[in-house]
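Human: Here is a favour to ask of a fellow structure person. Comparing notes only helps if you start from a blank page. Give me a protein, with the fold worked out from its sequence. Please set it down just below, with no commentary around it:

Assistant:
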Amino acid sequence: MTIRAGLDYRSAGVDIDAGAEAVRRIRDLARGTFTPGVLSEIGSFGGLFQPDLTGLTDPVLVSSADGVGTKLKVAFLAGRHDTVGCDLVNHCVNDILVQGATPLFFLDYLATGRLSPDVIEAVVRGIAAACTENRCALLGGETAEMPGFYADGEYDLAGFVVGIADRDRLIDGRGIRPGDPVIGLPSTGLHTNGYSLARRIVFDTLGLAVDSAPEGLDGRVGEVLLRPHRSYLPLVSLLLTEGAGGVRAMAHITGGGLTDNLPRVLPPGIAVEIDTRAWTPPPVFTFLQRHGGLTDAEAFRTFNMGIGLVIICAPDRRGTLLAACRRHGEPGAAVIGRVTTGDGTVRYG
């Protein structure tokens, strides 16, 4: 048998040197997010974290995992990679926030066909910035080079967050009652959902490019579609402190919109009525609905329509929460509906 000489990992499409360079750049970004609980270095086989349980009587860990979805396709077209990392962290943080948890640490997974240290650094820079904003540590992650699996210039991105809450302060919706007001907090745009439909309308139906500035949008296509998914932690953590005892449920409005996400927190025998006249969606939603010929039902089940997070509270806490929103720089918070008896659905009027 003749052994073929001259083959190595690089010839198979995996550049170990590029991987080492990416890790070198990532290490400093991650270190900048470290909180006192971090006990390990980047590069360890497992991340070590010791939580501070001061003030917690019955601590519960709350975790979530998610990705950025086909919003990445817009990043590839625009050649901009510094916002999708923020999207990833903020989406995951919001998912545990609505149950009353604060994040402890975050881990990421990035897989690509051909590893570019510049692209990896830009993505992780966004992840690190969002971790810093959300006061959680980027504890570790994985970067995988998979030639032949992803097209050149493309990658996939996923993340995992672990947070903590006191068990008796978990927010689970069991206290919801008919007559409770539904408060909506504004989104910054599409966040990370509905991009398969949005891309079809914008790029396939209309034939626009990322640098197009069509009438009806408040910016260039790439800029509007890449606006980062907002983190609600800075605001909501203040609201929970100042409106303690009044928040009965929260819902992160992601895939499925208000239609599918509000029912996830409703107890049996409860429904929600939404007044669509209570807020004005950002221009991107009107643009997509008009040019895509979308019915209201389709639009509200695909997109967040300008509402990124919903709070259901006791009636006597509505004024306190809205006043706190204004005081902390969120004048767009508004009562967008009310709780009724019903079959667990969302009705629009």
In short: The chain is about 30% helix and 20% strand. The mean pLDDT is 94. The CA atoms of residues 281 and 306 lie 5 Å apart. The chain has two domains: 12-46+54-169, 181-348.
